[in-house]
Amino acid sequence: MKARVTIMLKDGVLDPQGEAIRHALGGLGHRGVAGVRQGKLIELDLDATDPEAARAEVARMCEGLLANTVIEKYAIEIA
Amino acid sequence: MKARVTIMLKDGVLDPQGEAIRHALGGLGHRGVAGVRQGKLIELDLDATDPEAARAEVARMCEGLLANTVIEKYAIEIA
Q1: B13: which DSSP letter?
Q2: Of A8, A15, A21, A44, which to mutate for an interface test with B (greatest number of B Cβ within 10 Å)?
Q3: What's the CA gap between B72 and B79, in Å, rounded?
Q4: Which residues of chain A register pLDDT less than 70?
Q5: Could you report the predicted ipTM of this complex, rounded to two decimals?
Q6: Which chain B residues contact residue A48 at CB under 8 A?
Q7: Residue ranges of chain B with pLDDT lower than 50?
Q8: Strand order in the sheet with B2-9
Q9: Strand A2-9 and strand A33-46: pairing?
Q10: Element (DSSP H or E) covering residue B32
């Protein structure tokens, strides 16, 4: 079973990495980019076979290691 | 118009960051994680209004700046 975790900075948290990308895109001639936010994508290959159990396990992984929930939000997709 | 770009290492390219996460998850007691791959997620806020034009523009951004297409693959979602 595969799980895909997307981790983004929460709205309102300054994202200097995204801002640097936006600036670089402007320098390369890409006009019309109003904002850029950069996050992380983590794909997990799990032995679990029950989707609900897998989701709960991945949520524990996010809370304990993958995301800094003070400043980051995460979303889990199970496939 | 929003665009979401996911950038992952191509299959077969060693992912030491993902491997480090897998190892750390094991150390925290999360058994049953067979593999981890880490990638990047970039959310773009575009002025463009035509989805096809936006997709082509974002593809150029990926080829020119966002992804290293020698070792990375990217996927674009327009919303």
Answers
A1: S
A2: A44
A3: 23
A4: none
A5: 0.90
A6: 32
A7: none
A8: A72-78, A2-9, A33-46, B33-46, B2-9, B72-78
A9: antiparallel
A10: none
